[in-house]
Fold:
Amino acid sequence: MLFSVVTICYNSVDIIERTLCSVISQTSKSIDYIIIDGGSTDGTNDIICKYKSGINYYISGPDRGIYDAMNKGIEASKGKYLIFLNAGDVFIHSMIIEEVENKIRSSETVSDIIYGDVIYKYVFGEKYVFSQKLSKIRYDMVFSHQSVFVKSEILKKRLFNLSYRLAADYDFLLWAYINNYSFRYIDVPISVVDASGGATYDNFVKSRKESYQIQCSYGGSRILCFCWYLWKISFFKMTSTIKDRFPHGLLKLLLVNKNA
Structure:
């Protein structure tokens, strides 16, 4: 069973190497590794070339945004399942692909989408975040896209919608849920996601607006979806203020290793 791992990067010279090493060091030999670079000028490509023996497909050049780059990765993929691992992010350990493959093989049914948990890495420590109940996907992203494996054939049939700049992955997953594609949760963390930079307030608001539009386009209640939109914006602003003002030691005590 071949797994395609796609890494999207642009001017990521300080963080790309840990992602490359995380993928290439996997014990599973069933990996189709794809790098889509947006035309970096900071030395990112020099680092990628150091690991070219472990990369199956690599291009560098301008694109029309992150989802255009992700679509390029989808089109180049050869695996049965595909997962995106952003520059700077890593797999939880070197055996996780092998572990996921074993879980798939041991199951009586082969699911279209397989997802697990995630660990978010902040400047003050790491936080384990469990995936939420799948039915909540009508109102929010319930798992990290760095912790979800999707059958490549489905992604190839329905590439990411480029009209969405920040939430096209949510659009795809909500579409898959509504169209009765099968999801399976596996109770292990898949990846460690670098959240130390965090989303800016403006980008978060734009992302939530896109999510609201997506929810409404699939028949969601405009009132309920808008109330959820307002809550998420308020919660983000509150937590951002706390992270900016509270000592890191106290944040680690209060937040790290607590459920989301």
